[in-house]
Amino acid sequence: MSLTNEPEMPWQAPDYNAIPHTEAGDQIRYGRDLIARTAYYLGPKGKVAHISNGMNCQNCHLAAGTKPWGNNYSAVASTYPKYRDRSGSIESIEKRVNDCLERSLNGKALDSNSREMRAVVAYMHWLGTDVPKGKKPVGSGITTLKNLDRPADPEKGKIVFIEKCQLCHGANGAGKPDSATGTGYLYPPLWGPASYNIGAGLYRLSRMAGYVKDNMPFGASHGNSQLTDEQAWDVAAYINVQSRPHKDLSKDWPQKNSKPVDYPFGPFTDTFSEQQHKFGPYDPIQQAKPPGKK
Asked: What is the pTM (predicted TM-score) of this model?
């Protein structure tokens, strides 16, 4: 037990150079490469399969899933398998990885026993080597911002996008392809046919706003943000009103009363509109939820 009152430090990934030069180590390194260069292996011109949209996993899970507050994988091995309301079932790591392939990469699932899936899972287990079972370390996942007391405003967000985002992601949100390798993106598409679909986690405004706040534009980090909370919410709204691929979501959230307040697709068990569920304000929705469902 610590004898000091110092706050817990944010999670740091294990030293990549410490991965052993063994068959198991080679599997971990391959898993990391699949996260960093997904398009090379699994994209439209993939070396292994053609099952994803050309984005890399690390376009959303920054630095191959190792950046604190950058949607990292620190708590994957420690918290899975676990029950998730979205599917209404206990999910394995493999199911969660395939969710990302099918949603954020708008693609198809990998066979759970494939060499690629086994490598990705091995990499995630290696990242969580020092994380106790059941624990989510400081810096895992995405920051949850305080709700606005108004709807998020796409028009205000457009101004933020022009000033802060379009230099990298382009005025049309189509991203900047990696011309050096010919596969993947240096800066991913934020909308359009090559971007994430409506089933992706970042399509929820709270997720995108928290992600943007701590990681965008380039050079930002937790505690060193370049945007205010309001700017983050508004630019998230602007990005997510743009066109993107659709997905059948009819099996999501089988318990309707477990839908998050910012899930933008009905039916709902409350009386608030899809518009308010999409843009907010969210506090009234949150306050109307019955005890135990907040």
From this structure: 0.94
